[in-house]
Amino acid sequence: MQWLKSIGSSLKINHLANTVRDSLWQANCPLCKRPADHILCRDCDRQITAYQSPEFLQKDNPIALEIPLYSWGIYDGALKRAIAACKYDNHPEIMEVIGEKIANTWQRSPITRALVQKYKQISVVPIPLHANKLKSRGFNQAEVLAKQFCDLAQIPCKPQILQRIKDTKAQMQTKSVIEREENLSQAFTVPSIKANYRDVILCDDIYTTGATIREAIATLRRRDINVRAVVVMARPQFQR
Ligand SMILES: [Zn+2]
């Protein structure tokens, strides 16, 4: 039965080789574990794209009239599941896929291209995580998203401009508007930076109540840094 043993061991070697090849070159789709095309499989990619928002610019101006909010998608269904898989199942590469999608939409829009032309020194600042959360999650999803977006849209990414100094509760766990505001009060700081940054675009994964974004805008404004736009991956539809 030596021949059977040798087939068995060669099959095992093949299996091992497949695993090594998959992990080195072509990891499976992190959402469905089937063979991937470009990080995700085509099917999951299509499902996510189905949640692309019909309008990139949020016409209700939820932050302020002078600060446009751009949201790539609707926070629901496959897109919501993908964000959860990224954050809680340790798949930062999902944010890279969506960062690419945002960059494509950004570059197709004349309004956003005009914004970058108007403020020549503009850079993108991702909403930071507190050091404790960064340690437990291992990555800041907003920063992964922002870096990929910036690489493709050719805008400098400057995560060092804003720092989170308060380990806040998740906004979803707060019960009232007052509690939400207190939770975020003085959550951020602008560490001493040598370069002069005047104009920035804030970037985050999800826009819900806008409390986090507003607190970040206020902190930056105290240091004479103006937020010219906010870009997020998704926003729940019920708020519109
Ligand atoms: Zn898939």
From TrEMBL:
Entry-linked InterPro entries: ComF/GntX_DNA_util-trans (IPR051910), PRTase-like (IPR029057), PRTase_dom (IPR000836)
Pfam name, any one: Pribosyltran
Domain Phosphoribosyltransferase: 135-237
Xref: SUPFAM superfamilies: PRTase-like
Entry's family note: Belongs to the ComF/GntX family.
Protein name: ComF family protein
